């Protein structure tokens, strides 16, 4: 399975902060925003990832992330000239996907759960269909909204409804089979001129192959695309890291836990940020370096 990280858009809801930089490069506590969805894709076991952003911002992501070798993964980069909808990502990346199944993560979404890797790897192992994740919110009119029937199966999907009949929002994380680019070509622009991800999900729903996983009380989902949510996301990460001593949204930690890199490679990353608390935690995780072997004593 391949992964797409969509980090485009103009970030107008975060102006003036995003007049000079991409919103996905803004800090969420101690890490760039893009680190969080990147870590999510890596937790699913995905090691081949394409970052899609605007032509102006793409060089900044390349400078930040490089080719991925430091994390034991491979990054590719593509430009999205104009923000014409989330589903457009599958057209931009169609030749790169080459018929492979894929996961798409939005660059301003943060998902945290103790059992998240189990959920993600389960979705990645599905042979066919699509899997999305739903989360209860107070303001469903901002999102794609899903309703469920009496048996708990998804029954309808509506994009940003004026009068929502459900508080279950579809999060910015999607898993699709190899047909996704073909289905994306069938979508027509919505009244706001975008290729809506909800329309793509509805194709899978109507053929009965859409699986919706509910994220319950033990999970947190934050869409950091507005100032209040950006602040809340930073405070959430700060609270978890300072109170529990565990990292949130660290690609280096995930790479190490998933076996993509070894202790020496993790120490190298830690040295690159050695003046920070993040660097100290990564160094502690890697453990002390092995002392050099003693020189042989001449006879």
UniProtKB/TrEMBL annotation:
Its EC number is 2.7.7.24. Belongs to the glucose-1-phosphate thymidylyltransferase family. It catalyses: dTTP + alpha-D-glucose 1-phosphate + H(+) = dTDP-alpha-D-glucose + diphosphate. It comes from Gluconacetobacter asukensis. It is an enzyme of class 2 (transferase). It comes from the Bacteria. SUPFAM superfamilies: Nucleotide-diphospho-sugar transferases. Residues 2-238 form the Nucleotidyl transferase domain. Its cofactor is Mg(2+). The keyword Transferase applies. Catalyzes the formation of dTDP-glucose, from dTTP and glucose 1-phosphate, as well as its pyrophosphorolysis. GO terms for molecular function: glucose-1-phosphate thymidylyltransferase activity; metal ion binding. This is Glucose-1-phosphate thymidylyltransferase. Keywords: Magnesium, Metal-binding, Nucleotidyltransferase, Transferase.
């Amino acid at each position: 399975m391949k992964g797409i990280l969509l980090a485009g858009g103009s970030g107008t809801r975060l102006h003036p902060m995003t007049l000079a930089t991409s919103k996905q490069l803004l800090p969420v506590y101690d890490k760039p925003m893009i680190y969080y969805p990147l870590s999510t894709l890596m937790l699913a076991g995905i090691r081949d990832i394409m970052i899609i952003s605007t032509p102006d911002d793409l060089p900044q992501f390349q400078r930040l992330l490089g080719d991925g070798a430091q994390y034991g993964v491979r990054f590719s980069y593509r430009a999205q000239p104009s923000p014409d909808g989330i589903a457009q990502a599958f057209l931009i990346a169609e030749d790169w996907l080459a018929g492979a199944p894929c996961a798409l993560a939005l660059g301003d979404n943060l998902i945290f759960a103790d059992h998240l890797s189990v959920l993600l790897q389960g979705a990645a192992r599905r042979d066919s269909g699509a899997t999305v994740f739903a989360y209860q919110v107070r303001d469903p009119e901002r999102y794609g909204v899903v309703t469920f029937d009496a048996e708990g199966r998804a029954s309808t999907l509506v994009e940003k409804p004026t009068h929502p009949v459900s508080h279950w929002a579809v999060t910015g994380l999607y898993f699709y089979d190899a047909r996704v680019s073909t289905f994306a070509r069938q979508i027509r622009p919505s009244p706001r001129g975008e290729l809506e991800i909800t329309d793509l999900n509805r194709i899978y729903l109507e053929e009965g192959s859409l699986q919706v996983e509910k994220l319950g009380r033990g999970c947190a989902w934050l869409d950091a695309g507005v100032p209040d949510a950006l602040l809340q996301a930073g405070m959430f990460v700060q609270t978890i890291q300072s109170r529990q001593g565990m990292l949130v949204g660290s690609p280096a930690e995930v790479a190490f836990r998933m076996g993509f890199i070894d202790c020496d490679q993790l120490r190298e990353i830690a040295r690159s940020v050695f003046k920070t608390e993040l660097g100290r935690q990564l160094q502690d995780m890697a453990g002390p370096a092995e002392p050099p072997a003693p020189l042989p004593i001449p006879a």
